[in-house]
Automatic annotation (TrEMBL):
GO cellular component: transmembrane transporter complex
Record-given protein name: Ion transport domain-containing protein
One Gene Ontology molecular-function label: monoatomic ion channel activity
UniProt lineage: Eukaryota, Metazoa, Cnidaria, Anthozoa, Hexacorallia
Positions of transmembrane segments: 746-772, 852-873, 879-895, 915-937, 981-1003
UniProt topology in membrane: Multi-pass membrane protein
Length: 1137
């Protein structure tokens, strides 16, 4: 909607008029308008009541240059009295003042001079001047001693400073000269004294380019003006805003100065064109300024000078008569119309198409309106928006003007460009509406629609104006049932906005004909009341016979109440229409589903508690819990799980895709943990022998596919827990029981088979390699060449070492041949397993480092055993060595499956990872010292090559220092001093600092590693069970499927069971509080949080108690505490006070 002329004009007026004057001028229009408190959307609700924001007056805000009689205030502020910020001019004098300002801080003498000049201490001024203090030095705001003496009105000191050579042209920071200051303090004597100085410039421009004459004119100092004019002061000199001293005097109502200036104009026969027209930067005339002053003689003076009443202002094309009508000054209007007798009959309009009568009417100046009508003004002229004076008067609540215009024949039925009548815009003004409705023509206007399709009745209903509704119905019975273009009745509107009293009036005498009317969206008033949560309105409608209808989305009021979260509306509907409980909308959602989607946990709990409530799936195959999860409503999900019908909800979930428990584990782990808690049922006394714990394992295994009966994904929930590292879920007793059952049924058997197969490969391979090496002399035919006795006492045998090409294969021993075949067979079996894993896992297979190790083991073993012979080549012995090394290490990894050893194996692997992370740092230290020792001790046998030097350095790091043989100075140690110095550095850095750092790192991480190892073991166990389930056929899985498990924890287990659990069992369930002690620092934080939580609860309880007290007070005072009638205790309090 385009901005109305009234609103544009009001913005213009607000911009121009000082606040204090504007408040006094517009005081009559400060009525509260309840209609402005709410907004109405354009699609299905009536828009807000049309507001014609017009001003009473067209005013001008001029620069106010007020006198500073208080010298100290002038010293501190020096700000523009019209509110503008201080400016710096770019003149050369400014640069000089800045230089003086820098010198001002060099001593206290200049400051003393300023203070003495301001306070009037003439003797001190003479003393300081006698000492040679700079007479023109500025203070902190750029004022010279002369400025300050003038501000203090000390004539003698001013005279003394002038005689001592003070510069009368010096400018302060605002750009004002001493003459400006003298005029401001209204001291004619000082002005005369300054003017006697031949250097004084009477027309010097100060702040805003105002001259001293500007200031004197606006202060109405006629004597000073005369002095200035006598010294060539120019009354026509324009400032930055084009204002002349003459214009200033007129605008400020300075009558004496204005008359004096007018006399000068006539005396000098000055050009009137520049003085009367375009006198400011908005293109006003002098007559506009005179009318703006509000002083009748000033207006008369302007007219005598020849001002043209028809001349318009350039900015808005308004005349002085428009402005006078806006102000409401009847005398000024009469004076202006006397100049041109028939001006009221002429078509004088501004840029908004308004006549002077429009301006008067929109500001409720009924006396002016009456005068204009008497002068022949038309009663119903239209502006560019088609608005008449009556329309504008009605929009601002101008009852007197409305009544006057109606009495003078104004047409009430005229509408603006948006088809609004005066009734549309008078909403909220009771007296104005009463006046309008007295006209017989207003009866039909009650049900007339504007361009948006709404009638005055709809606007009144939206604003909650009960008086208007009663008045409309009394004048036109059709007002009760009138519909808008969107088919909304007044009852629709009051139901949407919660006006209970109006709804009661509309339904008086059981007017059920309108109670179930549907708008263009298919919504009844009950729909709208429930959608906004107006419980009392909904209750009233239901009591009056409202039925449950469906809108165009097949939603009932119950659906909308559930979406809003209004539990009271839901209760009222179910009390009267219980059959609507399970109604579904266009997307097959029930009210329960919509409440969950909107996140109303308490309402979901209430609906689930209704026995007749069905758990239905919507068109997306989602039930109430699915919707809560997908919309991230954790509170709703928790409320569902804690409800007695939680299992029914989860059982109703649609099959296929990701299960609910998986989604909960991923998005809401706390809710998933609560689901697991619900799957545990305890019976009997916990200390009794017959105490029984029952675990429901159906939910955690997901729903079985009804079409394929597939059981392949029964561990997907555990898989998600492992992937997301949900420790509280994965270590829950329910998960432990499920994994333990799976382990007992097929896990341990598979594990034992795999372990047996691996040992069947490893033990023969180890035995074969050791046997062949131990009997290599005999099997390969090596011969001793010599025997050397070492100084340590042992003998070193040296035999004839043949080349690989000269070795002859000897396969005569059957044991050796059998062991070869055993190793070959089991190595191939294991390689086949690896190939099968590659096919099944694909790229995932290559992400595990253990798979690479196993390939090294089996390939190296095959290299060793082929061809089958007793005497092996040297590279085969190396292959066997590496293969056995990795094979026995791989056996350690098998121990991860044991409940007792698993934790420690995982801890060991974690520490190895930590070691590898710092290995680069360790290697750099070894290289640093190794190369140094090689260069300094190359003639020593342990350091004669770089490789040996690095290995020796590594050995020394572990403690093998051998100081006596390597570092004691002798003939072979060429650099004894440097070598020993480096040895000291090495001893400090490597064995002491670095090794202790590694040990400390390992010890420091041991607690974290131990805590993490439990989770890692569970994750590893889940992965193992997943691999096994994927590899087992369906018929085996079906036999091993279990839905419920019962145990008696207080009964003593059988011996064989205890042995099984001890050796290859899954282990005991990890207690949450058994090993995971809370650190002291964290415990303190938790305690503080609990304290704050308790305080918050106390504050909440106190506020609730105070709220109840206020409600009780309100009820005693007759104030209803409901959301429907939009009243509150605060509103009552404000009303009372």
């Amino acid at each position: 909607m385009a901005a109305s002329p009234g609103s544009m004009y009001q913005k213009q007026v607000l911009k121009k008029r000082p606040t204090s004057y504007l408040q006094s001028s517009l005081g009559s229009l400060s009525k509260s308008d309840r209609y402005k408190e709410k907004d109405i959307s354009l699609n299905s609700n009536p828009p807000g009541s049309p507001e014609i924001q017009r001003s009473n007056i067209s005013l001008r805000k001029f620069s106010q240059i007020s006198a500073h009689s208080d010298a100290s205030e002038a010293d501190e502020n020096h700000a523009d009295t019209n509110g503008n910020s201080t400016k710096q001019t770019g003149t050369p004098k400014n640069a000089i003042r800045a230089k003086h300002h820098q010198k001002a801080g060099k001593g206290n003498k200049i400051q003393k001079l300023h203070h003495a000049a301001l306070s009037g201490n003439e003797a001190e001024v003479q003393k300081l001047l006698g000492k040679g203090v700079d007479i023109n030095a500025p203070d902190s705001v750029g004022k010279t001693p002369l400025h300050n003496a003038i501000l203090g009105k000390h004539l003698n000191i001013v005279d003394l400073l002038l005689k001592s050579g003070a510069d009368v042209k010096c400018l302060d920071e605002r750009g004002d000269t001493p003459l400006h200051a003298a005029v401001r303090v209204d001291s004619e004597a000082i002005v005369v004294l300054l003017l006697k100085d031949g250097k004084t410039n009477t027309n010097a421009k100060g702040f805003g380019s105002y001259t001293p004459l500007h200031i004197a004119a606006q202060m109405d100092c006629v004597d000073i003006c005369k002095r200035l004019v006598e010294h060539e002061g120019d009354i026509a000199q324009a400032a930055e805003d084009k204002m002349t001293p003459f214009g200033f005097a007129i605008a400020k109502g300075a009558q004496a100065v204005s008359e004096y200036f007018a006399g000068i104009v006539k005396e000098k026969d000055m050009n009137l064109e520049g003085l009367l027209y375009n006198v400011d930067n908005e293109g006003s005339t002098l007559l506009h300024l005179a009318v703006d002053s509000g002083i009748l003689p000033i207006v008369g003076l302007s007219l005598k000078l020849g001002s043209n009443v028809r001349q318009t202002k350039e900015s808005d094309n308004s005349t002085a008569l428009h402005l006078a009508c806006s102000q409401g000054s009847l005398e000024i209007v009469q004076l202006l119309t006397n100049e041109i007798r028939d001006i009221c009959k002429e078509e004088i309009i501004d840029e908004q198409g308004m006549f002077p009568i429009h301006r008067a009417a929109m500001n409720n100046h009924f006396t002016v309106v009456n005068f204009l009508l008497d002068q022949g003004a038309e009663a119903d002229p239209r502006d560019i928006e088609g608005q008449t004076p009556l329309f504008l008067a009605a929009s601002v609540g101008g009852t007197e003007t409305v009544q006057l215009l109606m009495d003078r024949g104004a047409d009430v039925t005229l509408k603006d460009m948006e088809l609004r009548s005066a009734l549309h815009v008078a909403i909220g003004n009771t007296s104005t509406m009463d006046a309008l409705m007295k006209s017989p023509s207003s009866k039909s206007l009650v049900v007339d629609k504007d361009a948006t399709g709404y009638t005055p009745v709809h606007y009144a209903a939206r604003a909650g104006c009960l008086e208007h509704i009663i008045l409309f119905i009394s004048k036109n019975k059709a007002a009760e049932q009138v519909t808008s273009d969107s088919l909304d009745t007044p009852l629709h509107i009051v139901s949407r906005y919660g006006w209970l009293e109006i709804a009661q009036r509309l339904l008086k005498k059981r007017n059920v004909r309108i109670i179930n009317v549907q708008n263009n969206q298919g919504k009844t008033p009950l729909h709208l009341a429930c959608h906004e949560g107006h419980e009392q309105i909904a209750k009233l409608l239901l009591m009056e016979g409202a039925t449950i209808e469906r809108d165009h989305h097949d939603r009932t009021p119950l659906h909308l109440a559930a979406t809003k979260g209004s539990e009271e509306c839901v209760e009222y509907i179910l009390e009267t229409h219980p059959g609507s409980l399970n109604a579904i909308d266009k997307y097959q959602n029930t009210a329960l589903n919509l409440a969950a989607t909107a996140g109303h946990a308490s309402l979901v709990t209430y609906l689930l508690s209704v026995k007749e409530q069905e758990i239905l799936l919507n068109s997306q195959n989602q039930n109430v819990l699915d919707l809560a999860i997908s919309n991230d409503k954790e509170a709703v999900a928790m409320a569902i799980i804690e409800h007695p019908r939680w299992k029914e909800v989860m059982d109703s979930a649609g099959g296929g895709g990701v299960s609910q428990i998986q989604t909960l584990v991923e998005k809401m782990p706390e809710v998933a943990e609560r689901v697991l808690d619900q799957c545990v049922d305890q019976e009997g006394d916990s200390s009794s022998k017959d105490f029984k714990v029952t675990y429901d394992l159906r939910l955690i295994q997901g729903k079985q596919n009804s079409f394929t009966s597939s059981l392949e994904h029964s561990l997907d929930a555990l898989k998600t827990m492992a992937e997301r590292r949900r420790e509280n879920c994965l270590t829950h007793p329910v998960c432990y029981v499920l994994m333990n059952i799976k382990w007992k049924k097929f896990g341990w058997i598979t594990f034992i088979v795999n372990l047996s197969l691996y040992l069947a490969f490893l033990l023969p391979f180890t035995g074969l390699a050791v046997y062949l090496k131990a009997n290599s002399l005999e099997l390969c035919g090596y011969k001793f060449e010599n025997m050397t006795k070492h100084r340590t006492g042992y003998y070193e045998h040296t035999w004839d070492w043949h080349d690989d090409d000269s070795i002859t294969c000897n396969g005569s021993q059957k044991t050796v041949v059998v062991l070869h075949y055993v190793v070959i067979v089991f190595a191939l079996i294991h390689l086949t397993k690896e190939i099968v894993q590659i096919i099944r896992q694909r790229l995932k297979y290559w992400t595990a480092i253990t798979n690479y190790i196993e390939w090294v083991i089996y390939v190296s073993a095959l290299v060793f055993v082929f061809p089958i012979c007793a005497c092996k080549a040297h590279y085969k012995s190396e292959a066997a060595a590496f293969s056995l090394f990795f094979a026995w290490l791989n056996l350690v990894l098998y121990f991860r499956r044991f409940s007792y050893y698993g934790k420690y194996v995982i801890m060991l692997l974690t520490m190895f990872k930590t070691l590898f992370q710092v290995l680069l740092l360790f290697f750099l230290f070894v290289v640093a010292f190794g190369t140094t020792f090689y260069l300094l001790m190359y003639n020593k046998s342990n350091f004669d090559t770089l490789e040996y030097a690095l290995m020796k350095t590594f050995a020394m790091t572990l403690g093998e220092l051998n100081y006596e043989s390597d570092f004691i100075p002798d003939i072979k140690l060429h650099y004894p001093l440097a070598s020993n110095v480096m040895f000291v550095f090495f001893s400090l850095a490597m064995p002491i600092i670095l090794m202790n750092m590694l040990i400390g790192l390992a010890v420091g991480d041991i607690d974290k590693i131990q805590q993490k190892s439990v989770m890692d073991r569970y994750v590893m166990q889940v992965e193992l069970l997943l691999e096994l389930e994927e590899s087992l056929p369906q018929w085996i899985l079906k036999r091993m499927q279990i839905d419920k498990y019962e145990e008696f924890p207080n009964r003593k287990s059988k011996l064989q069971t205890r042995l099984y659990e001890k050796i290859i069992g899954f282990g005991k369930a990890e207690s949450k509080g058994e090993d995971d002690g809370v650190p002291p620092a964290m415990a303190q934080i938790i305690d503080r949080v609990m304290e704050q939580d308790a305080k918050i609860d106390e504050i909440y309880a106190m506020m609730k108690e105070q709220s109840e007290i206020l409600k009780a007070i309100g009820r005693r005072q007759g104030v209803e505490d409901t959301a429907s009638n939009r009243k509150s205790i605060i509103g009552w309090f404000l009303k009372k006070h």
